[in-house]
Write a structure and sequence with these properties.
Number of helices: 15
CATH topology of the largest domain: TIM Barrel
Distance between the termini: 13 Å
CATH class of the largest domain: Alpha Beta
Order of helices and strands: EEEEEEHHHHEHEHEHEHEHEHHEHHHEHE
Strand order of the largest sheet: 6-7-8-9-10-11-12-13
CATH architecture of the largest domain: Alpha-Beta Barrel
Structural class: alpha/beta
Bound molecules: N-(iminomethyl)-L-glutamic acid, fe (iii) ion
Length: 409
């Protein structure tokens, strides 16, 4: 099947096969090569050719022609960190936080992740699947073309496996490529509050072997944070996951400088995510690694916390990826366009840096940048066609609008 897209106002993120980057770091994050007034040809879901409209061979045939009507065409958003599978919203905690109770205090009183786990344990797999599938389509409507989804609201062998099976069923729907992450180490269940080793044993001896045997996840995550999983506890869990073929991507340095960055780097984590609390040693540590820093400004926004120090990281020469962290507690939004707006307004990233952080670097955070994240011949066609707009700066600028006309993937 050959699709020809014509009348593209601006084709964004264009690279030749030879100069197509796998990741953009530091000053290079500000580059965003593009072609004005362009066409693009897709053949069997792969980018086949592109160029200026003036160079389009008028005898070019296609099974389908899409008139972009002066919209921008660009790689679809890649959301490398979500908790899309969950049972219910938590607006009662939202009200508590407005009244002055902190996210940590709510969690310490058995709310937060434990609240979500109780609700998920009482929800059937089919019900979870239906809710999650509807959210997946809604995320796609906002321009997301690839997504990562974590478990972590099960916190028992059966419920964690249930979540991962839901993710597997979502993958089979082929709405978009999905990567699965096991996050059994999200919080200690009440019955293990004073027996951390007991829960770690359950994760390592029961959950991880079964997940590996059934091929239910590719990555292993842990919430490395004061009041959740210490560096030592996180290390034990990551070591077990790695021994079973899972690759680390961890929650680090959200509420405190938890040592999570150093812990992730020590285990060659593909990414360390959150990073609200960062200092020079953490930046130095990341500079010595291939670990991607993933910033989640939507969580900082919703929890009214300070934002991640994106400028400090980029100016030090690091790459940065952005993701939504979509979840019912700290960020009930999967709107990646709003993430770019937060990145620009609150973290002082440029439009180009924000777009790179949500495309090619986000692909790198999922080990997919050889196939996705730029407009390059031979890469998979996973694209957004926007409504007619003059330039990409309008994406973060119009933070309350969806400028997405169509997602092709
Ligand atoms: O990434 N920080 C840990 N986990 C999620 C939120 C979990 C929740 O509150 O349900 C996050 O923000
Ligand atoms: Fe998260």
């Amino acid at each position: 099947m050959r699709i020809l897209i014509t009348n593209i106002k601006k084709l964004l993120h264009t690279y030749t096969k030879d100069n197509s980057p796998l990741v953009l770091k530091g000053a290079a994050m500000n580059q965003l090569p593009s072609i004005e007034n362009a066409y693009l040809i897709i053949e069997n879901d792969v980018i086949h050719a592109y160029g200026a409209m003036g160079n389009l061979n008028t005898e070019q045939t296609a099974d389908k022609t899409i008139d972009a009507k002066q919209g921008i065409v660009m790689p679809a958003w890649i959301d490398s960190h979500t908790h899309l599978v969950h049972a219910a919203t938590r607006e009662e905690e939202f009200a508590m936080r407005i009244a002055g109770v902190s996210y940590e205090e709510i969690a310490a009183k058995g709310g937060g992740i434990l609240n979500s786990a109780a609700k998920l344990q009482a929800t059937s797999e089919d019900d979870l699947f239906d809710k999650s599938l509807a959210r997946l389509y809604a995320a796609k409507n906002l321009g997301t073309g690839i997504i990562e989804i974590k478990s972590g609201y099960g916190l028992s062998v059966d419920a964690e496996i249930k979540m991962l099976r839901v993710i597997k069923r979502l993958q089979a729907e082929k709405v978009m490529p999905i990567k699965a992450t096991f996050l059994g180490a999200h919080a200690y269940p009440v019955e293990f509050k004073n027996n951390h080793q007991g829960y770690i044993d359950m994760i390592c001896k029961k959950m991880i072997p079964q997940i590996a045997a059934e091929g239910l996840a590719e990555y292993i995550d842990a919430f490395c944070e004061r009041g959740f999983f210490s560096v030592e506890e996180t290390s034990a869990i990551l070591e077990c996951g790695i021994a079973h073929g899972l690759k680390p991507k961890i929650h680090a340095n959200q509420l405190h400088n938890s040592g999570g960055v150093q812990c992730g780097v020590k285990y060659n984590a593909i990414s360390v995510d959150h990073l609200e609390s960062m200092d020079t040693p953490e930046v130095e540590c990341l500079l010595q690694s291939n670990t991607m820093p993933v910033l989640l400004p939507g969580a900082a926004f919703f929890l009214a916390m300070h934002y991640q120090p994106a400028r400090m990281l980029i100016d030090a020469g690091l790459p940065v990826a952005l993701a939504s962290d979509y979840n019912p507690g700290s960020c009930p939004s999967f709107n990646m366009n709003f993430v770019t707006s937060l990145a620009c307004t609150q973290m002082k990233m440029t439009t180009a840096e924000a777009i790179n952080a949500c495309t090619i670097n986000a692909a790198a955070a999922l080990e997919m940048s050889a196939e996705y994240g730029t407009i390059t011949v031979g890469k998979k066609a996973n694209l957004i066609i926007t409504k007619p707009i003059d330039n990409e700066a309008l994406l973060p600028y119009w933070y309350g609008e969806s400028l997405v006309r169509e997602v092709i993937n």
